[in-house]
């Protein structure tokens, strides 16, 4: 199976780029952040503080997570319920970031991610895919952009959706999450030694997608023109 790892901070465009590229290649797209989000949402629903390691770990024995692909779209199924929308609510982001710092949560999700990669040609996006989950991935990309650019993109996206949030608030939140994700003791956000850094600052999404497709062609010899 061919496995492509895409890591990077939140808001760098990983999921949109990975999704579009996966479609062109006919690969499945695995959004691993969604798995952390599902664990976070489950803990929130139980009324737990998502930084409380003991409480969060106690939830894992009752969690069954599945990823399903409907028309190429990843859906996240938590104990039989499709939570694909619930995990996108604003409170799910920080909850995911919090639970992702808990080693037992990472271990819990590790096997699921590994087996998806073993069974499918895939593009997997996350924070530690190239460093921990798929250290032997065929290609590792680290997609990044400045915090200001990422906050601006998120700002535009929320305006389009009719739920505007103050730019400064978004910027602060992005910086906080970057700090959390890159300073945790376990599997911190960082490029693998053999990752190619792709800075998407100043790019349109189309340009970023083209960049990544060109790298795939160059490094893996997979042509995606038709
Ligand atoms: O990609 P995302 O924003 O949906 O991820 C949500 C949180 O999950 C993010 O703050 C960091 C964490 N995460 C992680 O630690 N490891 C991954 N492979 C994916 C996400």
Explained architecture:
This protein starts with a strand and ends in a 6-residue tail after the last helix. The protein has nine helices and eight strands. A hairpin with a 2-residue loop joins β3 and β4 (73-78). The chain has a single domain (3-217), classed as Rossmann fold. α2 (33-45) packs across α3. The strands form two sheets. Strands 2-6-1-7-8 form a five-stranded parallel β-sheet, with helices on both faces. It is of the alpha/beta class and 226 residues long. The site of 2'-deoxycytidine-5'-monophosphate has 14 residues, from α2, α4 and α8.
* Name of the CATH homologous superfamily: P-loop containing nucleotide triphosphate hydrolases
Q: How are the strands of the biggest sheet laid out side by side?
A: 2-6-1-7-8
Classify the secondary structure makeup into a structural class: alpha/beta
Provide the CATH architecture. 3-Layer(aba) Sandwich
Average pLDDT, rounded to a whole number, is 94
Ions, cofactors and other bound molecules: 2'-deoxycytidine-5'-monophosphate
SS elements, strand count: 8
Shape: globular
Can you summarize the main beta sheet?
Answer: 5 strands, parallel
The number of distinct helices, counting runs of at least 4 residues, comes to 9
Low-confidence stretches: none
Helicity level: 40-55%
Task: Using the coordinates above, name the CATH class.
Answer: Alpha Beta
The termini sit apart by 21 Å
Total number of domains: 1
